[in-house]
Amino acid sequence: MNREETNKINDDLLRPLLQTSGWFYVIVVLLGGIIVAGLGSWLYQMSRGLVVAGIKWPVYWAFYVTNFVFWIGISHAGTLISAILRLVNATWRRPVTRCAEVITVFALMIGAMFPIIHLGRPWLFFWLMPYPSERQIWPNFRSPLVWDFFAISTYLTGSNFCTHCLPKLYRSSQFGS
Amino acid sequence: MKALYALYSDPETAQRADDSLRKAGMADRKITVISSERFEAYEFSRRDKPTWIFWIAAGGGVLGLIVAYLLASGTQKAWPLNTGGMPVVAMWPNIIIMFELTMLGAILATVVSLLITARLPTFESKLYDPEISNGNILVAVENPPEDSVDRLERTLRDVEPRTARITRIESM
Amino acid sequence: MAHRWGMAVDLDRCTGCEACVTACRAENNIPTVGPVQAARGRAMHWIRVERYYEGEFPDVRVKFRPVLCQQCDAAPCEPVCPTYASHHTEEGLNAQVYNRCIGTRYCANACPYNVRFFNFANPVWDRPLNLQLNPDVSVREVGVMEKCTFCVQRINAGKTQAKAENREVRDGEIQPACAQACPTTAIVFGDLNDPESEVSHLSRSTRGTKLLEDVGAKPKITYLQRQS
To answer: Is C63 exposed, middle or buried (0-12, 13-18, 19+ CB in 10 A)?
Structure first.
């Protein structure tokens, strides 16, 4: 591969990072508007209470928990793909694995928001963390919601580190570049 | 002299350079090979000795298991709330916490030991040439002994007399 | 001897008047949610009277069953609360700590009797109803779970009074609001650990059953009804 070809490949790969058209900003504004709408809805729910979410007695768990499970399922899909490709030692797997791991991490971040949105008093969500609170009382380790907290944080840490950053760090340390 | 290096255009030549450097008396750990792609099929990329990372990760996992057991059972015993006849320290729910913290311990131990063994982040500038990004492979001897610099340069040049580019770096 | 509070409800005496419901909400500062929200099923009745119709018109018979928190011994709501807001006291009550509740609503999911209620909105009492609030009971804010506590404020007051007078708590001295208001004395409250108390006698009666006993939650309220 001579120098001209590599330069051209570099330019092609990096062009989306360095140049863009006006449509990009239009799309940013549109998607940002959706994010702001979501944030506003959540703030509205926090101020008015969960009555605006349409939940009522006797079914107290509705959309938020289901959506949480849905997004965790999506992140599992990414992990499953990268795990199976690794086990069968397919060398063409690397770009696919990279995409799958990125999907996992972002779906996890989305899914992890929903238990907090589901809470009646979300500003106190940190009581799920394992630390001695008032009068040294810890969270209830028998409760599946505390298992949720541990599982999501371990999964997020593992997906971020083990299957995403670690191989790159290791290779870069080996080859020094 | 800080480093003496040669750039080769393909991995075959780089492997020959690596072999001839070793025949010229350089120890494995003094030879550095830098490339932009992986070359797993070649011997110069497989020279690392087996690492302790697996055992450190396993140890981290065991540590996580112990911490989780102490955390769950200790806090349950510290506030022995009336559970209506069910055990205060229940094994099955605690096993889930123990599993999660075992995995977390293994993951964190792996990350920390990787950072340490790779001596990241590097504070001194590392050896690099822009030609590496163009697909060439750099074979270097870092900190060569002063009296053998010429001999090593000749060794590197003899591998590919026409296209090898040799450079000496006095300071980085 | 430690107390173990229990209750017996005589269904043959219950007339379905719902005086217990009204007394409970007056005693425990339960907010009214308005007709719109009540129609949507968000009314908070810590004790409710369930109606069961039997027979065809014109031979219809109605059966009434007041359902309140059964203060189960093996309560399914307790192991699932992540912050220990729902826990068991030494006297056998299932206590709800409003300050510790973060509104997960897992306890309500787990309850087989559906007696747990959630504050969907901030409660409001239009004036002059705010003057009616019971100072012994905390007012819950939005986002916390609540349920029948066997009028724990009355239990504590009774125990304090008995201790101040250096005597034991007498049977019938502590009465939750529902028992006090019931015109037919269908609701009887007392100490199950005291073999002489009326509730102990009634809970051993042959007419006694427990609600949803096969679920395994070990409820403490005995419902008495003619078995034939």
So the answer is: middle
Using alpha carbons, select from C192, C60, C85 the residue that is nearest to residue C149: C85
| B168 membership: H or E segment, kind and range | strand B165-169
Helix (H) or strand (E) holding A166: helix A166-175
Phi, psi of C70 (to 5 degrees): -85, 0
Name the residue with tokens 């309220």: C221
What distance in Å separates the CA atoms of residue B27 and residue B34, rounded to the nearest whole number?
17
Split into its structural domains, chain C has a count of 1
- Report d(CA C121, CA A45) in Å as an integer: 10
Among chain A, residues having any CB pair with chain C shorter than 8 Å are 48-51, 55-58, 60-61, 118-122, 124-125, 127-128, 134, 137, 139-140, 142-146, 149
The parent domain of residue C77 ranges over: 5-224
Q: What CATH code is carried by the domain that includes residue C71? A: 3.30.70.20
CB atoms closer than 10 angstroms to residue A4: 8
**Which of A166, A174, A76 has the alpha carbon at shortest distance from B109?**
A166
CATH of B3-49+125-169, one of 3.30.360.10, 3.30.390.50, 3.30.70.120, 3.30.300.180: 3.30.70.120
Write the pLDDT tens digit of every residue in C18-62: 999 999 999 999 998 889 988 988 899 999 999 999 888 889 989
Q: What is the ipTM of this complex?
A: 0.82
With an 8 Å Cβ cutoff, is B81 touching chain C?
Answer: yes
The Cα–Cα gap between C134 and C26 comes to: 8
C127 or B99, greater pLDDT = B99
**Of A143, A76, A133, the residue nearest A108 (C-alpha):** A76
Residue contact B84–C84, C-beta within 8 A: no
How far is B95 from A104, CA to CA, in rounded Å? Answer: 25
By three-state DSSP, how is residue B109 classified? Answer: helix
Longest dimension (CA), chain A: 71
Residue B84, phi-psi category: left (phi > 0), alpha (psi -120 to 50), beta (remainder): left
Cβ contacts below 8 Å, chain A against chain C, sum to 98
Please indicate whether, in this complex, the C-beta atoms of A147 and B96 are within 8 angstroms of each other.
yes
- Could you read off the pLDDT of A40-69 as tens digits, one per residue? 999 999 999 898 998 888 899 989 999 999
